[in-house]
Amino acid sequence: MSAPILYYDDRSPPVRSCLMLIKMLNINVELRFVDLFKGAQFEIDFLALNPQHSVPTLVHNELLLTDSHVILIHLAEHFDEAGKWWPKEYADRMKVLNRLFFECSFLFRRDSDLMSEIVRKQYANVDVTYHRRKLLEAYDIMERYLDGQKYMAGDQLTLADVSIVTTLSTVHLMFPVEAERWPQLQRWFATMQQLDAYEVNQRGVEKLRDIVQQLGKFEFPKQEL
What we know:
Blueprint: E1 5-8, H1 13-24, E2 30-33, H2 44-49, E3 57-60, E4 63-65, H3 68-79, H4 90-121, H5 128-145, H6 159-171, H7 183-193, H8 198-216
Parallel strand pairs: 1-2
Antiparallel strand pairs: 1-3, 3-4
């Protein structure tokens, strides 16, 4: 079986979730960089591979996957023999899947709306108050998710945590997770930042911060990432 090929730009939160899992599972993966901010995703060769023109894109033998959540599940099913990240019990898997859908349909969608608007319109022309309201609603939801449990889908780290933390850390650039309002979310976020693989995410967040500030002609609030 050949090594998976991951087309990536680590400034993308969904890409970073895959890179974190790859590091945690010590998977041998060939990485091919696609510069989203230079339009490389629209080049003919890449469009032939992925008409959706998105990263991450994974090629593994005959399989082509173009969604980070599906890629996470695929990698876990093939390389996580212990079933730590993608539980073996059906009910536990469904809890993880539910959080993955929250990340893609709610949290990441709102994060992407904000960041892409800053890049397209520049910060001075963005209704930040509107985006703040939408994203802090997501913070409130995640705070409730953590009621009575350590992680997003229970008391064990799963794919849900890896997927959510890469997007949350991006939103955190603009709207810090304040311990007074979201104590459980802040505790969870701090725990995730202690993982060895988090450095993969942090490098990508820093790169994203720099390019968004440059294109958006502003500076994010000063804080620790």
